Amino acid sequence: MRPDDSSAAVLAPAVPELQALKRQQVLRLLLSNEFGLLVLILVFGVAFALLTTGFLSAFNQFTLNRTAAINIVIGYSMMTVIVTGGLNLAVGAIGVCAAMFCGWLIEGLGLPWPAAVLGGLGLGASLGFLNGWVVVRSGLHSFIVTLASMSIFFGMMLFITRAASFRALPPAFAEFGRMKLVGTVSPLMLVAIAVGGLLVAMYRFTALGREMLAAGAKPEAALLSGVRVGRIFILCHMLSGVLAGIAALLLVARTGAAIPSMAGQLGQDWLLPAFLGPVLGGTLLSGGRVSVVGTFLGAVLVAMLTNGLLLLKVGEFWVQTCLGLLLLVAVLLDKARRSYLARRRML
Amino acid sequence: MTAGLRSYLETDWFGPLAITALAVAVIGGLNPSFLSPFNIQVLLLAIAVNTLIALSQMIIIAVGQMNLAVGAIGGLAAVCFAGLMQVWGLPPVAAAVAALAIGLAAGILNGIFIAVTEISAFVITLASLSVYKGINLGITRAQPFYGVADSVKAFGNTTVFGPVPWLMVPTLVVVGLIWYLLNRLPLGRSILAVGGNSHAAELSGISVSSTLITAHAISGLLAALAGVVLVARLQIGQPTIGDDWLILSFAAPVIGGAVLSGGHVSTSATVLGVAIVAIITQALVLFRIDPFFVQVVLGGLILWAVGVNRWREVRLRQGPRRALR
What we know:
Chain A has helices at about 5-10, 15-30, 35-50, 60-80, 90-105, 115-140, 140-160, 170-180, 185-205, 205-215, 220-225, 230-255, 270-280, 290-310, 315-345. Chain A is an all-alpha fold. In chain A, α6 (about 115-140) runs antiparallel to α12 and α8 packs across α12 (about 230-255). Chain B contains 14 helices and 2 strands. By secondary structure, chain B is an all-alpha fold.
């Protein structure tokens, strides 16, 4: 809200001005990323329901929200680092390392699965810590640091595991992945929603979350107002590592095994979903602003488009092209929206 | 320290050259088969292809951006090259020209999107990476093209003299042209000026957007050439060509002292960077060290190189101050 708007309204609460103010607020809401995504999800949902057979079937909805849940958490993982104005190319590599470590703790050490899950997430956090520590200490851009660490983490993982998967996981994992609540909802989705809720609470209500946003928006200003920016950035990277670990463990629950190639070569296959969610959701790449709900909706839209395009028999190979085009269209629309809002504010 | 030696130490190519010489001496001493003609030929083949990949990225680093789509453009050009020969029966030269044109067009599209929308190159090339890779998979349905013409296979397999393969020829020409472009031509100077400070470049009359588009066009062309050359070397049009170029394309320019924020790159040092990566990869094979370890070494090399660059930068900044004291 513009400060001069509110002061004008307070000084002279004329009815037409108030209405104009309200109209502007409504307009801003209608032009928000979250609202746009919601509309797109509804439009595409109706289109796919009419054009394809089986889009609304219980089974398809179940697989859809299982896939979406994983993409959502991958999106969160990237989002927590984008907050700092950096990025984390190693999301996929960290995720795979965490999942493989969890698999090894179960099969190699015979730990019970809850301990192994914690161990996997712990490894995710430590790899994230390494990234953050190097970025903060060296002053290098996180792009090049995480590009290098993605190669190192993934290479070490292959070196240690000899590229063998862990397939004898306890049935609890596979059962969790197969479980259906109310016929269509997968518990994986509930995990994604719960994690999202925690992130919203953190960014909204905790000092830590506010400090992350402040440090990302303007590191120098945050430093002057007593925020320990370096430590906060490292925490952001650790959080990203934990979330990458959660995403990978959800994927393990879905496939029933921890496989080194589950995120592609060097974990590169996760890069596109990792950026699609936050960028569609209106997270600023320059840092300092997040939209957890937007990331959630963005990932849901992507999962739904992928699913719908496959049902339309576009051919699985063309889906990737469509997703790339979607990212292009999304950033262009976002740009147009921003310049429109800027112009309105100037009027 | 004498002034002459000091000025050598401050160039970009001196460090990488010293490391290359040291690595050749040490590895050659430990394992004489490293210097066998066959091994040198294998090494030169790797260097020939990887230099093109590295230069394709280097030209974008020079304008202060990054091109994640280098591998996707190369892969698309590679399958188009092989596909045009197999499916439409085009002569190799026509197919190669078409493939290079596709790479050029892909690069120009990247450049136009980045220059017109002013959205970060990272996001645009991430999107176009997925578009180009998707087109590649859509055309090939993930199956390789085997119908590569015999003349192409011969070009990829024979040597000019001794252990020097024919594939080195296009690479050497490109290295010469890029060096000439960046050091002698106005266009090259404007590329570096835009990378150094695009605002200042704009004020001094350089068209930033057309410079960006040209840089991306060159990058696309070089990536496509790398793809075509790799088809000649592998003898088939693999749809997976380009998947593993990302790390390598950044490693070599960074080892060569390129500043990632733009404005400072060195063609010769980048070529030496490629050589260092190739020699180390080769050494891991010769000493029967786990091939999985190559990834770790590549990542480590990048970190080490950016660390050294950073240290040099800090020292250069401190240099004048120390002189004043």
